[in-house]
Structure formats: structure tokens, C-alpha cells
Amino acid sequence: MKEYADFLGSQPPYDSLGSDDLRRLVEALEVEYVAAGSMIVVADQPPLDHMWVLRSGAVEVIDRGRVVDHLGPGDTFGHISVLTGLAPALSVRALEDCLCLRLPDPRTVVEEPGRLHSHYGTMISRQRLSGSGALDETPRSARSLMRPVVWARYDEPVAVVAQRITDAGHSGALVRRGDEWGIVTDHDFRRRVATGEVAPAEPVGALASFPALTVSEEFSQASAFSRMIDRGVHHLVVLDRDGTPAGILRAVDFASADIRNPLLVRSQIEAADSIGELRAAAALVRPTLVELGSIGVPALQVGSLQAAIVDSILRRLVALHGLDQLAQAPSLVVLGSLARREPLPTSDVDTALVWPDDLAEAGQAEYLERAEALLTDLESCGFARCPNGANAVNPLFARSRERWSAAVSRWLGDPTANQALLLASIVIDSRPLTEVALGRTVTDALRVRRRTREFLDLFVRESTAVKPPSGFVREFVVDHRGRHRGELDLKRGGLLPVAAIGRWAAVVTGDTRGGTVDRLRRGEAASLLTHDEAETLTAAFEQTYELLLERDLAAIATGATTSTYVNPRELDTLTRRHLRETFRSISAIQDHLASSWSERLTP
């Protein structure tokens, strides 16, 4: 069952469950094999009492005879009928042999079903399965970049289809096989035809991948971009509202290396069989981030992609150092901005380690030895460990499951204890990368243990203690105490104060998922922040992050030293004015929150 726990625990929305609820759900699931062509869900039948998560294989979603979506591993279906009590509106059929995890209604199994419902509700409201809802309102749709479809019959010779693709100036074709379609690309020709595995006279169907990965024509370019990165593919089929292929979106259609390089980095990381190969792949990361920024990819999206790539590097290091092969494998946990998926290009990497309770002292020593080697190799890949000690080899951040739970409970119970608030803050920003259920121990105690009024009072003071500057006088920055300084620390002045308020909202709601903007939105939903406060803080965070990212990327591109400090002389009048208003808004919200936080709590 561990395999299914690790799989579900890494898939949304199940990655939001605590370890106990994840265990309950895994214990309640059934593994179901479905043969290709079999109907799994039939529309207009009685309401379902269970849903499915696809473990392997692919299924197609059918609306009145039309295929409107394809689902792959990690996707959930049947949940709308289960949660609404209505008959299923759409049919689901296996495109190939599938392994499905059949789940009962989570409301009957887990103790905190609300952690799933918010995600399910989003899936329903977006009408993802029907293909009739706008998935993204941004006008830069995937359709605007797609190229016409080059079609091929399943039995046409490889050489004929290759020539057709070349004549069209394309890099792939859709291959018909009955009522379905797959895709064949130039990569397939290079990998299998050029090597002699498939002869030019053989049917092109021998090369094609079924089913082709699809997106709705209403996907934004950013969403299509993310799907390519997530699935590690270079082509997507764009479907119109009728579920018919309208075009093919290629990686190169994004006008530069913004797609190719992340995919290249990811594939090279995953294929690395040695530290040397991993180091070579990691060397591509920062140049790739520079290219992403240069073509206008949104700043927080660049940060999210960086986090995904660093995650991949860390997972590969875990495998190369054999931590995942130990009899009692530990969980590697990331902390800080990386855990929130909002690091800057030059951010250091904060980590923690969780191991099973019954591990002998000698085993613990081996874990720490391997973790030290892992961090050393991480640094050789260009990513520094935390200089302040938040590392998986520090006894403060390397503990057994039981000791982690006891420590978090102690920090919550006595916030006046030495470093209690600081350590609790670090724990809030944590995300397990491996052995997910075990790693959840770090945040489980935060969710289940009652936060005392004393803790919340001290925590809100801590969260509002880092004050932004008051403004600028001539060439100086004026801090909140009226002192004049020659430099502005953008990170401390604009980023950390907002992240701290988001962290406070996460503590009060007991929901530590996501990044700062996600937490601010949940804070607004829980009436901890007004709509105007949440909007102001979100804008302040996004704009300050963008400014810091731009500076980091410019320094990387020119080989200069990066810094979060800015000389006021470097700022134009408009930027100074904007920052002044941003700092004042943050400060006003901090003061209001510190004085009225208890009135905002739900009775």
C-alpha cells in the first residue's frame, strides 16, 4: 500500500491531506484493472458512490458521443457525481489497459474532507470535464499559437508521413486509428527510425503514441506551457469545443527557448545516472530562468518552474545517494520559499529530514551521513544550502516522526520558549518531496493541535514585526523608526512582511498549502483579511517579487553579484513612488491586523 500512498500523496488534491487521512483513504481504496475499450462510467446511470484516480493508462471522456477530454495518470473522475449526488453527465471509457484506484466518497473516510472539497469544487466550477467552461480567461489562448494538423492514416508508410511533415514545415502528425488519434513526432523518427528499430516502409502506427495529450482551445498559453512541463512532452493537441483536433501546439511555437529549455533540463535531470551528469543538467537551470524572464513569462510562474526543477534535482540526489532504497526510507522535506514554490533564482535551499520512530541510533547516523553528501552535491550543482542552519543535517531539522510531532506541539504550547515562534514559522513553510506520508508529520501537528490565544497573539506580533521603510528622502531610505539608510533591502522591505502575513493566515486556518498569494486568498475567505487588504498585499507581493526576480536575472545574465539591496539612486521616480505607496499600504495593514486580529477570528 505504500506505493499507492506515495502516489496519491503527490497528486492534488490528495497532497493536501494529513498523513492519517491519507492512510485512511489508501486503506479504503480498491485497485481495479480495466481493459482497453471498457466503459468505466456510463452517463445518465444512477449516481455513483465511488470515484477513480487513474494510476496508469489513459481514458477518454465522452459527451453525447463526442470525445471531449483525455485523462492520464493522476487525474480523478467520477467525483462530480459522488459529491453532488447527481447522475454522471459524461461517460468515461478506457483508451488503453488501465490501473485505477477506486475510492469511496472521501466524506465517509477522512476526518478533514474540506481539504479535498475546495479542490473538487474548483474542478467542478471550471467544468473541466465538459469542455464547455472557460478554463482561463486570459486572451493569450493556446489556440493563438497552434499550427494546422497534419493527418496520417495508421497504415501509411513511415517514409510517406515523414515527407508530408517535412513539406508542411511541421514536426509531427496526428495518426488516425479508428475513432481515436495518436501522435508521431520528429523525435520518434530520430529515436526509432534513424536507429533502424522501425523501417521507413513500416506503418506509421508503429511509431505513434496513443492517445495524444490534449488541451482545450480555451487553455491559456501559460496553462499549456505548464502542462508540457508537467508531462515532459513537446507537442499538445488543441481541441475545439466539439472535442475535435483543431491544431497542434509545439514547444517551438512559444517563440524561443521558454519551453524547450525547461523540458530539456527536466529530461536531463531525470536521466542523470551520476552526480557529474546531474551537475551538467543543473548548469542549464539559471540560463533557462534568464530566458524565461526575457520573453515575459510572469515572475511567479518563473519561480514556480524553478521550484519544480529544484525538486527534481533533490529527488534525483535522493536516488543517487540511495536514501530511497533504505529499509526505512526517510522523508526529505523542503522548507521556506522553495516549499511555497516562490524561490528567487539565487535563493538557497532549506531542507529537513524525517525518519521512522523505531530507527536505531546507527541508522540515524547513516541518514545524516548520506544527507550531508546529498547537500554537498547539491551545492556542486549550484544551489547553496541554508547558511543559517535550516538543513537536513542539523539536529533541529532532522528528527524522527515522534520527535517532530513532540517538538511542534511544544512550540505551539509554549510560544515563549527559546526559538519557538521562529521554528514554528519554518515548519509552516514545509513540503515533503519523498516518502510523503512520513514527511507530513512536520505539519500534521500544526493542523491538529489547538493554537492557544497566547500563541496566536505572539505569532501575529512576530508576523508584523518586520516593517517596511517609511519612504525616501533625497538619496536615502527612511526606515520605520525614522533612521536614514543608504540602501533599500527589497526582500526585507516588501517581500518578507507580506509572506509573514500569509504565514499567519495559514496558522489560523490550519491550511499551510500553497504560496503566499494562495494563503492570502484563504485568509480573505476566512474573514481574516478584508478583500481590499488581500488585494493590496497580493499586488505588493507580486510586484516586489517581480522586481527582485528581474534584478536577479539581470545579474545572472551579466555575471554580476546578486543582491536584494538597491541603491535609491538606481530607482526612477515612478518606481520610487510606487514602492513608497506599496510600503505604506503594507505598514497600515500590519498595524490594523496587530490591533484587531482577535476580532477577525470566527467565534
Task: Write the topology of this structure.
Elements: H1 2-9, H2 19-28, E1 30-34, E2 39-41, E3 50-56, E4 59-63, E5 66-71, E6 76-77, H3 79-84, E7 91-94, E8 98-104, H4 114-125, E9 151-153, H5 158-167, E10 172-177, E11 180-185, H6 186-193, E12 214-216, H7 221-231, E13 235-239, E14 245-250, H8 257-271, H9 275-282, H10 285-294, H11 299-320, E15 331-335, H12 336-339, E16 350-355, H13 361-380, E17 398-400, H14 401-413, H15 420-428, E18 430-432, H16 436-439, H17 441-448, H18 453-463, E19 471-473, E20 476-478, E21 484-485, E22 488-489, H19 490-509, H20 516-525, H21 531-558, E23 565-566, H22 573-596
Helix pairs in contact: 8-9, 8-10, 8-11, 10-11, 10-21, 11-13, 14-15, 14-17, 18-19, 19-20, 19-21, 19-22, 20-21, 21-22
